[in-house]
Amino acid sequence: MFSSTFTFKAGQYDQHFHRLDQQIAEAARAIPGYLGEETWQSADAALIQNIYYWESEAALLQLINHPAHREAKAKQERWLDGYRVVIAKVIREYGDGKLAPR
Q1: How many whole angstroms separate alpha carbon 16 and alpha carbon 79?
Q2: Cβ-contact 2, 38 below 8 angstroms
Q3: Which residues pair with 29 in a beta bridge?
Q4: Residue 33 — φ and ψ, nearest 5°?
Q5: Confidence (pTM)
Q6: Residues 66-102 pLDDT 10s
Q7: Long-range pairs for 22-26: beta carbons < 8 A, 24 or more residues apart
Q8: How confident is the model at residue 49 (pLDDT cuts 50, 70, 90)?
Q9: Which domains does the chain have, with CATH numbers?
Q10: In contact, 83 and 8? CB cutoff 8 Å
Q11: DSSP letter, residue 79
């Protein structure tokens, strides 16, 4: 399993941002190998974090190469006041089974 963690500081959003954000979310969920996602905010709401889970690196790369994702990445300075992406290979996951990525 792989995870892609997108941490960012929100700037000024516009309709184009919201449209691209929705397209990216829909594209991710339609990719075979998409396992789920989580969203978090820091206590002061200054940082937002979206974590996507993937069955394989190939599935993750499909989202990275999706036209809406590429456009958003190219235009991120219009909407964000900074961002960081971490791609990780998950070596273990465990728990009581009551929580799963959505």
Answers
A1: 10
A2: no
A3: none
A4: 105, -10
A5: 0.84
A6: 999 999 999 989 999 999 999 999 999 888 988 876 6
A7: 23/68, 24/63, 24/66, 24/68, 24/69, 24/72
A8: very high
A9: 2-43+57-89 (3.30.70)
A10: yes
A11: T
